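Deliverable D2.4 — example input (structure tokens):
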């Protein structure tokens, strides 16, 4: 697969498409700042992207940072790790400049919504899980600007049923 020239062309095509979309988003943000006057550009802007490969070797390109139409919220950089051996899913979010009391986390078995804010620094994101989880098993830690949320994976044999103990 690594020797296949077509595979490299596919990656480059995906990257080119992503860069075109990113340029359009940046132009939209800059136009909005210009039209919004001096007050609209009173804080730094952050925008970036990450590229990683999924388990099938397909590149996954994800953007983060200040995005248009997010009502002043910044989307944090995030990643997910699924550990089948341990049976858990870990979501990692980079959200510097806030305190743990500022963080609000809501989750279902398929997605987690995180919002946090302190004065002018606000974060919000919706993370689609790579595997179904049991939301009631979630634990979260926040240290040095990094939020880690860990869930137990949903047992595929369970099919959503909860065992009830008979007393």
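Example output (designed residues):
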């Amino acid at each position: 697969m690594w020797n296949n020239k077509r595979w490299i062309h596919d990656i480059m095509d995906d990257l080119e498409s992503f860069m075109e979309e990113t340029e359009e988003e940046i132009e939209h943000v800059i136009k909005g700042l210009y039209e919004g006057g001096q007050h609209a550009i009173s804080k730094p802007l952050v925008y970036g992207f990450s590229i990683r490969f999924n388990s099938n070797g397909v590149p996954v390109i994800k953007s983060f940072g200040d995005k248009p139409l997010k009502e002043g919220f910044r989307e944090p950089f995030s990643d997910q790790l699924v550990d089948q051996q341990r049976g858990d899913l870990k979501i990692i979010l980079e959200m510097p400049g806030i305190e743990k009391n500022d963080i609000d986390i809501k989750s279902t078995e398929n997605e987690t919504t995180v919002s946090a804010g302190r004065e002018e620094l606000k974060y919000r994101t919706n993370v689609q899980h790579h595997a179904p989880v049991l939301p009631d098993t979630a634990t979260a830690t926040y240290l040095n600007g990094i939020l880690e949320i860990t869930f137990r994976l949903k047992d595929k044999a369970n099919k959503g049923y909860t065992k009830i103990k008979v007393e």
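The beta strands are 47-53, 59-66, 74-75, 77-83, 88-94, 103-107, 111-118, 121-128, 133-143, 146-153.
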